[in-house]
Each structure stands twice: as structure tokens, then as C-alpha cells.
Amino acid sequence: MLLFTGGLIFLAALFLADLLLGSVKIPAEEVLRVLTGGEAARSEWKDIILYFRIPRAFTALLAGMALSVSGLMMQTVFRNPLAGPYVLGISAGASLGVALLVLGFAGVFGTTGSGGGSVWAMAVAAWLGSGLILLLIMGVSLRVRDIMTVLILGILFGSVTTAVVSILQYFSESASLKSFIVWTLGSLGNVTGAQLRVLMFSVAGGLLLAVFLLTPLNVLLLGESYARSLGLGIRWVRFLVFLATSILAGSVTAFCGPIGFVGVAVPHLARMVFRTADHRILFPGTLLAGGIVLLFSDIVSQLPGSDQVLPVNAVTALVGIPMLIWVILKNRKIGFE
Amino acid sequence: MSWRKDIILELHDLGIGYYRKGRPDYVFRHITAAAGRGEMIALMGRNGMGKSTLLRCVVRMLCPLEGQIELEGKPLTRYSGRQLARKLAWVSTEPVGVQHLRVYDLVSLGRYPWTGWMGARTDADRRAVWLALESVGITRLAGRDLYELSDGERQRAMIARALAQDADLIVLDEPTAFLDLVNRYEIIHLLLNLSRREGKCIIFSSHDWHIATGEADLIWLMDEEGWFAGSPEDLALANRFERLVDSATMDYDPRTGQVKLVREPVMKVAVEGEGEAVFWTRRAMERIGCTLDTHHPEITITAVDRAEGTVWKVRRKSGTRQFPSLYELVHYILWNH
Would you call B93 an interface residue with chain A, using a CB distance cutoff of 8 Å? Predict the structure, then answer.
């Protein structure tokens, strides 16, 4: 309980810090005045806070939670500490979907950019792409018992997908190419009001689905044969976990680009902090830790004090990988045998 | 078996094995048996005879190639996963390699067939979990990490998990493997208590034929001659043990039911004296392959009780020697005969 309270306070503090810091310097009291419904000294400050920083902080929070929870579920289902949305090529699948939309079909249908209609188009394309990869992995995992094989195949699927994407890139024109490249670098700042609503509903839906899977995931910890002997419908649980992951990771990737390492590292962080394998505790724990880590990464990516901004993907790797190394070195083994 | 009302499991002319290239490849055929409430049954047979395969058929991890299994008079195939889990619990040799899994949480997963996705949360569930922990004598370990337990304690925890499932039939695959002698006896004793006191039907496979034949109500034997079911004594009378230990290096004594490694005869000895020392001296002689022969011994050993402890006097044609311990006596006989 103490850990959760402390985590919540830390999360709130980071959220506030994310609103206070940015490439444009705004005095703290001005930010607070806008947040409490007042007027800022300069009108553009109010616009920056309301239409840029608040959506951005919310996006970081949602994306961190969604990616971390899908990582938690995937690690349990695959019984592998390195599993996660990114490692298994799901983000690569999403990027294929978006690449096909932005690079492939844009020329054909004449729709480009970020108009209102393409919000849904982008999301659906990413969902379909990540769902495709997940279905492939699911099919393999039903046929191949050795989970290491499944993991390797997942990485290979990801590579094939990346190859297809690079072909698309090669043949596309520079304007759409640039918008795709920017998408792959990951960004939390491009999610506008309408997109944020879509993201919020998708993440809420995915998380709600995950809540129903917590006890089945606990049962899966015992291994497949025990889970079956307890009457768990393994195929159903797998399917639902893949569906939830596809919704969570797929929509985050659609709006923010592929954000790596958060999904792999945060569940381990939660396991270490809360010292439990119980998903009913790990789920809120992972939500908290995921929000914290991505908010922190977002603050770092804005390089407070300068007017430069780093791609968030680079920061999550720089934050997430040392975290993983720390967990591995401290525990020797992580989570599963 | 119509005279018995307590039958819970029946196997009708079962053939087990695997499909190879679409054709049935039998491991064992013509298994017919019945198991009753309150009975402890040991499944025995050499490695590769199909013990695990049979058990996996009984718990429906595998399908038998022919014949039928009935649980409480209803074919096993007609149960849903959850229905089956409420009647039949399974303890395999598969290790549960999860970190930070508390014993209490592990055991409460046994409630899954009764609770579903909500997990164990009612008072009745909690009571069942504590009762299970108490039955196997590990209530004091409830808050401990599964990882910190010894092999014996972990096996107890796995059995408690099966007990929490509230099933009348518990099937265990080699529950005493990897355990030391005391733990092996304690686990078997625990299982016997569960069958006697709580009326469970317990079926376990074992290589520990000393313990199994000493404690089980019923032996299910799989050997080259075929299937045999009967009390341990029935088996002895039918001369079926000899085959179980039939090998060039093992020797079975039908009078005592003892098994020994076959040794090259060393010499004929006579052992004289009084009390415990004589018994253990004879044991030592048998262990090194001496034949006990009071009529025409090559040497005669006399165990003499002295105030400072037992000494052993050895008489042979060449003269007399004295030894302060059996170890030195054995060394002398082995290297100087």
C-alpha cells in the first residue's frame, strides 16, 4: 500500500513536471495559473499548455501504461523475460501497417498527412499490422512447443516486416517518406485532441480486457500443463491476451510510433519493486511504473533548458536498457526459469 | 468390480501411445483397472514402459489410442475443462520456475476451477487454501517465496495446491523424485493419510518400489508381461516383482522382498556373537558379497562386546586377527582374502 501511495505521488509529481518543463520556458506560476483555469501573462503560453503540454503528458501516461501492461502479459504468456510488444515484432507489424497506409496507398488514394479521417485509418492500419504479426506468432506457438523457437521466429517475422517496409520506403516519394520516418522515431507530441480521445478509449478498452485476464495469467505462471489441469482454456486466454496487446500496443504505436524497451523493462521493474508474481498486484504496479518511466523519458527527451527535442524512442532505449541490465545483474535471472 | 460402490475411476481395455505418421504406435495395451475412494495406488514399471503416458491419459493431457476412461461413471471426454478440474487434480514433475510466487498464492491458484477469472476471494476459498496448507503441514511457509523452499517443502506446496482444488482424485507423477529418503517416506505417508482420512483416491507413479510396495493399497504394474493390478502381496505371490527388477545387475530375494546388486561371491563366512552387532556384521558381509555359511566357512567372525566398544575377531586357517570396526574388517576381507 505504501509503495502504491508513494508511486502515485511520484507519478503525479512527474506529470506536473512534464507540464512545467518544455522547450519553451514558461514560469511555473504561469503554468499553475493556467491549470487552475486562469489566464497566462502571454496568450501563446496558455495555448502551449492546453493544446500541447497537457495532451503530451496524457499521451506519455497512456502509452507508458499500455506498453508496460502488454509487456507484462506477453512475458507471462510466452514464459520469457525478453518478450514484449517490441521484441516480438508487433511494433514492426504496426509500422508495416502504417507504412502501407502512408507510403503504399497514399499515392493511390491521394490521401496523405494527418487529416481527421486518417486518425482512424492510421489506428486501424497499425492494429491490423500488429494483429497480423501476433496471429502469426500465435499460430507458430500452437504448433511449436519450444518457446525459444517462437521467440526467434517472432524476431525473424519482425525482420521480414522491416524488409518489406524498407522496400516501400525505397519506392516512395520524399514527402511521405519523411512523415513515415518521423513516425518511426516516436513522438508523444503529435497526438491532438481527437487523436487523444481515440487513444484514451483504446487504451481503456485494452486495460479493461486485461483486468479479466489477471487470474488466468496467474494460473499460466504454473506452466501449460498445470494451467490445463486447472481447467484454464489456454487458447482462449492466449487469444484474449493477444487481442488486448494488439489493441494496447497497436494503438500506441499508431499514434506515437514504435516506442521501444518500455514494454520489456517496466514489468521487471514492477516485479522487483513489489516482489510478487501475482498479476493482480503487478497490473496496477505496472500501470504506475509504466506511467512513471514514460513521463520521465518524455521530460528527458525535451532536454529541459534547451530548445532541442530528442526522439522519445532514443530516450526510452537509453532509460530502459540500463534498467534491464540492472534487473538482470541484481537478480541473475529474471522472472522465469 | 460391480461389488464395489466406491469406484471413482475405471480404465477399460486402454491402449496408450502416440500417433506416428498418422498410425497408432502403442506403448502399452490392454490396461483394465479400477480405483476407489480412500485408496492409494502406486503405478510402477521400468523407465519407458509408459507410466507417464498412462497418467497423462488419465488426466486428459493425452488421448488414449483405444479403450475408455470413466470418471465417476462418465467418459472422461464428456467433461468440460472446469468440470474435470473440480474432480481431478494433477501434480507433475514439471518445476514451477517463477520468482516471487508466494506459497499461499500458489495454493490459492488451486481454487481456479471454482472461482474463474475473479480468483480466490471468498471466505470459503481462503478456508480451503488454509485447510490444504494445514493438511500437508506447511502453514508456517504460507508467506514464503516458492523459490526459498527445499525440494520436500516445494513438493508439499504442489500437493497443497492440488488439495485446494477439492478434487476427489489426485494423480501425481513421481512425487518422490529428487527427494531424500526421509522426505520420500513423509510424502508417501502424507498421501496415505489423505486417502485414509479425507477419502481421496491417490494415484502416483514411482520408482521407489520399496516404499510403494510397503505403503500402497494397490499396485498397478506395467512390465513386458503386461498389465497387472493387485495388492503388493498379490504381486509378490504372482512372482511379478522379479520381472520388475529383472536385470543382470539386480537380484531379488522372494523370501524377504529385498533387492540387491548382484556381486561376485567373495567368500563363505560364519558370523557369531550376540546382539545388534551380529545383525549389522551379517549385513556388512552380505553387502560386500560374502555368503553366510555356518557349516563350511572360510573364515569365522566373532563380534565381542567389550567395555570400550565392540571388537571383531576373525579366525581363519592362517591365524586370528582383531578389528576395532566393521570398516576395517571389511577392508581386510576385501583385500586379503
Answer: no
Partner residue opposite B98 with nearest CB, options A216, A225, A336:
A336
Please report the domains of chain B, with CATH numbers, ordered by start residue: 7-250 (3.40.50.300), 268-336 (no CATH)
The closest alpha carbon to A191, from A176, A206, A201, A177, belongs to: A201
- Put simply, whether B106 touches A (Cβ < 8 Å) is yes
Q: Which CATH class is domain A2-331?
A: mainly alpha
- ipTM score for this prediction: 0.81
B131-190 residues touching A, CB cutoff 8 A: 165
Least CB-CB distance to A228: which of B61, B96, B165? B61
Which span out of A148-157, A321-330, B70-79 was modeled with the highest average pLDDT? Answer: B70-79
Tell me the shortest Cα–Cα distance from A229 to chain B, in angstroms.
Answer: 6
Q: How far apart are CA B20 and CA B26, in angstroms?
A: 10
Closest residue to B98, CB basis, from A212, A213, A221: A221
Q: What is the mean pLDDT of chain A?
A: 83
With b for 16 or more beta-carbon neighbours within 10 A and e for fewer, the B144-182 pattern comes to ebbeebeebbbbbbbbbbbbbbbbbbbbbbbbbeebeee
pLDDT of residue A116: 37
- Enter the pTM of the model: 0.83
CA distances from B236 to A221, B31, B243 (A): 43, 20, 11
C-alpha–C-alpha distance, residues B142 and A5, integer Å: 26
Distance (Å) of CA A217 to CA A233, A282, B100, B234? 11, 11, 15, 47
Contact B98 A277 (CB under 8 A): yes
From the candidates A222, A224, A269, A334, which should be mutated to test the interface with B, based on the most B CB atoms within 10 A? A222
Q: Which residues of A touch B83 (CB under 8 A)?
A: 231
Phi, psi of A62 (to 5 degrees): -65, -45
B51-79 pLDDT tens trace = 999 999 999 999 999 999 999 999 999 99
Quote the cell numbers at residue B77: 471426454
Q: Render pLDDT for A104-145 as a digit per residue (tens, 0 to 9).
A: 765 544 444 444 346 567 777 887 888 888 788 777 766 776
**Hey, are the CB atoms on A213 and B90 less than 8 Å from each other?**
no
Contact B74, B53 (CB under 8 A): no
